[in-house]
Amino acid sequence: MTTQSTPNSHQTLPTQGLSHTQAIDALKAIGANDMVPDGKKWAMKYDAGQDVTDVAEAAFVAFMGKNGLDPTLYPSFQQLENDVVGACARHLGGDEHTVGTITSCGTESVLLSVKTARDHVRSQKDNIHTPNMVLPITAHASFQKAAQYFGLEVILVDIDPVTMRADVEDMAAKINDQTVLIVGSAPSYAHGVIDPIEEMGQLALKHQINLHVDACIGGWVLPFQRKFGVEVPPFDFHVDGVSSISVDLHKYAFAPKGVSCLLHKNDLLRQSQYYACASWTGYSIVNATMMGSKSGAPLAAAWAVMHYLGEEGYIEKFKAMWQTTCKLIEAINASEHVEVIGQPNMPLMAIRPTHGDAFELADRLNARGWFTQATFGYGPSPAHLHLTIDPACSPFTDDFIAAVIEEANALTPPEEQVDDQTIHMIKDLLQQDIDLTPVLESFGVQSGALPQDMADLNRIMDALDSQTRETLLKTFFQHLFQPSTLAATR
Ligand SMILES: *Cc1c(COP(=O)(O)O)cnc(C)c1O
Fold this sequence. Notes:
Layout (H helix, E strand, L loop, with lengths): L19 H11 L19 H14 L11 H17 L7 E5 L2 H19 L7 E5 L5 H9 L2 E5 L10 H7 L4 E7 L11 H11 L2 E5 L7 H6 L16 E5 L11 E5 L2 H5 L3 E3 L7 E3 L9 H38 L3 E3 L7 E6 L4 H10 L5 E3 L8 E5 L8 H14 L9 H13 L4 H6 L12 H9 L2 H15 L3 H6 L1
Parallel strand pairs: 2-3, 2-4, 4-5, 5-6
Antiparallel strand pairs: 1-7, 6-7, 8-9, 10-11, 11-13, 12-13
Helix pairs in contact: 2-10, 3-10, 4-5, 10-12, 11-15
The structure holds pyridoxal-5'-phosphate (PLP).
């Protein structure tokens, strides 16, 4: 590499471009510290094996230059979208009226389901001035994000502290004449349990409001589980009152990131999702999604993986995942010092030590190479370790179980609870808009990198009220994301 090719702090880019190999090698070096998806990572990845990844990659590359902004120029978009939406609709109990849209992620599907409900119910009733949505505390955070983006009020519904399912009576009591949407999860991300969707459907029909079933993580798996004999409570379009369903293809359909599907019961409902603008000087736009220009790559990869695996391929993968899940639940619940929260309906679950600290357990497992997702407590849901099981986990099941039980047995209760003084100090600092760097550094956060052992930091985060935690997280992430060249000259 010549010296001219090395970027310095005054330059935007290297003066002379790098070679193909140099650019790609430099990129790969940057990625060298990223999480490697293997069987020892029990959350945040959906690995169906190298052969599936290879199919996805080939399809991704072949379609990455195609732009979904104008499907009339790329008719393949229309066909791929209709094929994939059709497969999702049939899979989830749709009929000849069911329609849908491919979006870029679960969050976008959720955002659009909320916008659709707001505009649809408004078009049907003339008294909606301050629209609200009524959703369980287990519903994905993206619904609250949607409420903030689109100006809706959020009314949170309690859950049963044992089953972690939504309390439908509480939901019924909280619906009012400004409610446009209620939400159920199939299943919830944290605990993997399906809400009472049938009862929610009755509420939606009674109040003539939308019911969105968030099957982002479960929608592709659950119907297949039924096919090999697992009992799955009703959750899809077979249930009366369901208006829309979201299903992420970049999770358990094993497509690469960037593809989800939002289904509507009929075209009248979907109408409120669309946006068109012809009142400007450029090309007229008509968008079903939030994005304008969008790559065809994720959709093409989803299509290719779905056709590559076929029904039998998915069933084989999901059977292995379910076996792992059952084995894990049984072993953990039989052990003395760790338990599964609720009864998971699919290969997702929350586990926690019964004496000792969940964050400490996560650290101990991490030190042995086992990744789990440490999760804060909220309401009746205690701090826990979240697991998302994929086919790559199966061969490691016995080793993982042994490690969890061993480390849970070795836990000692934390010496001290987080003291009020620390909490007050953090709140004060945040309110005064003072630089948090010294505080973060005192918890082991050094120049943006998180410490190896997160338990102390996590315990403090867990002790904060959720608003303070939100502010702290935003501050921390703003701190992480500072332009490279500016940072070099600072
Ligand atoms: C993952 C998930 C989402 C959000 O999906 P993203 O693709 O991460 O935006 C929404 N709901 C549930 C239940 C999920 O599991």
